Each structure stands twice: as structure tokens, then as C-alpha cells.
Amino acid sequence: MSRENTCPVCGTRGLSVEVPYRSILRENELREAFVVQRLGHQPEELEAMDLTRFMHGGPGRILRCRECGLLVRDEADQSHYEADMYDSALMSHLYPRYVRAFEQKRDQYQPLLRNRAAVLEIGSHLGAFLQAGEEWGWSPIGLDIGAATSAFARRQGGTVKRLTLDDYSPKLRRPEAIFIWNCFEQLDDPAAALRKSQELLDRHGLLVVRVPNAEYYRAMHSKNSQAKPLAYNNLLGFPYLHGFTPQSLSRLLRAHRFQPIQTHNSTLLTPPYPDMSRRVNDEWRQVRRTEGPWLEVACIKTETSS
Ligand SMILES: [Zn+2]
């Protein structure tokens, strides 16, 4: 197998097969057909990003840790799609939808930080959260290694550094909060990201992590009738390296001295279709009522592990 057969959360050896190759293949085919039906055509090269092409969306199987419930994607093909093939017109088109999706989270997150708080976002993508954060009175900085996405985010007025978390060191003040909205599940070493966050954050700093909910995927993926909520939440074929359950995420956070203070059931931010046709809008409105496909946890940096 291509990945070490050890759980990166709890260290248990011997992960078992939860979803075999043939089932992932079937889910990937289902995803393609689902998108083609809604687009009305085969997606063109650039349109396909975030719809049918993902960094970890190819053939593979899903393993599971019997001890903590973590899912681990074991991939047959390690040559992933280039993650930064974005079209400027498409980004402009999607951007306002992402901003609106973040703005809807205002009541959950704005009260957690003071005005002018220094905020770091890891994987700032199009910069939509940077804009929302500024509207909420914070001073956000984004980290993103993508050339096209970070250039786009800067054109929207965002402050973005093309650095990995490992290479980042704050020049003026330590961040009072770190947000990882959509990439924690794609990191090879999520524990290393938490260690670095612990080191960077100010005293009692806030960490917010958002991940697909592995428990939801596990309960739904074998039911044919559930293809729609899975597809709209980008869970078909489970195109992520790690799948956290609420318990495995909490366990990992606590082990790195982060005390969870809020957990929110959530959904995908917005379907990344270039155009929201009436059908897509209606279906999305319907499946959005199913809260639980994604998971958001806010926690506070503490001095001791709990
Ligand atoms: Zn485990």
C-alpha cells in the first residue's frame, strides 16, 4: 500500500478497508454523471476544477482506523491533478457566492474575536473569507501556495502570502486566530499543522477547523438514495486524504492542546457550478437542510492537553 498503514491521529496500526476500490470507482463515475447532467455538457478543462477534478479524487480505497474512526484515503495513483488550474472569469463568477456563504457565518464567529484581531487563514483560495473577515472588523492574512488563486485574491483586495504554514513566521504580531476552512483534510500531516498553529498563535488564541464529516459519509455512501446530498457536499468518492469523525477530530485537537468550545454541523460552502441553474438552485436548497455533511470546530489554545 502507498500510505503507511498507521493511523495519523491515534497511532493504531493495521487500518481496515472501509470502502474498496470498486466502490470508489463507482462513486467517481456517479459524480461525473451527476455533474454532466447538471451542467448540460461534459465539463471543459477549467470548468472541471472543484466539480469533477480534485487533488485526491482519483482511484483509491478508503481505510478506517478501528480505534478512533479516522478514514484514510489509500490512493493507487499518486500523480494528482495540478491543483491550481483556475480560470479568472470562473473565479470572478464564483467569488461573490463564496463571500455570501462566509457572511452567513457572522453570528457564529464574529463574537469570538475583538475588533482589529490579527487573523491567519490557511489555504485562503479565492480570498472570500479574507473579505468577510475584514467586514467583521478583523485584520486577516491568507496563506495560499496557488499562483492563480492567490493572485486573484490579491486583486479582490486580500492580503495573501504564497507560503505554506511551515514557512510562515509573523513579522509584527502573532495571530489571535487561525482558520483552516477547506484544507485540513488534505494535509499529509495534520498533526504537524496543529503543532505549528500552537506555536504561532497568541496566548488563548482561537483555532477554527472545518472538515468533511466522515461519520456522515460512512452512514450515507452505501445508500443509492443518498447520492444527491453526497454529490452536493462533494463527498462522492471521498476526495480527501483524511476523513475525521467528530470524535477523531476532537481527539487530535485535544492532544495538541486545543480545547473545543463550539462545534457546528455544516454543509459545503456553495456548489462550485459556474452557473446556478434553476435545477441546481432548487436541489441545493433542498439538500442544504441536511446539516451534518461537514463539521466546523472552534477551539482555544490551552497550556495543557485535555
Ligand atoms: Zn486512529
Q: What string, H for helix and E for strand, traces the elements in order? A: EHEEHHEHEHEEHEHHEHEHE
What structural category characterises the helix and strand content?
A: alpha/beta
CATH class label:
Alpha Beta
- Could you describe the largest sheet, including whether it forms a barrel? 7 strands, mixed
Written account of the structure:
With 306 residues, the protein is α/β, with parallel strands linked by helices. It has a single domain (16-301), classed as Rossmann fold. It is 33% helix and 18% strand. The protein has 10 helices and 11 strands. A 7-stranded mixed beta sheet has the order 6-5-4-7-8-11-10, with helices on both faces. Strand 2 (60-64) and strand 3 (71-75) form a beta hairpin. The longest helix has 19 residues, at 21-39. The protein is globular. It starts with 15 loop residues before the first strand and ends in a 5-residue tail after the last strand. The model has no long low-confidence stretch (mean pLDDT 90). The structure holds zinc ion (ZN).
Q: Topology of this structure?
A:
Elements: E1 16-19, H1 21-39, E2 60-64, E3 71-75, H2 88-103, H3 106-109, E4 118-122, H4 128-135, E5 139-143, H5 147-155, E6 160-161, E7 177-180, H6 190-200, E8 206-212, H7 214-220, H8 227-232, E9 242-243, H9 246-255, E10 258-266, H10 278-288, E11 294-301
Helix pairs in contact: 2-4
The structure holds zinc ion (ZN).
Zinc ion is lined by residues 7, 9-10, 12, 65, 67-68, 70.
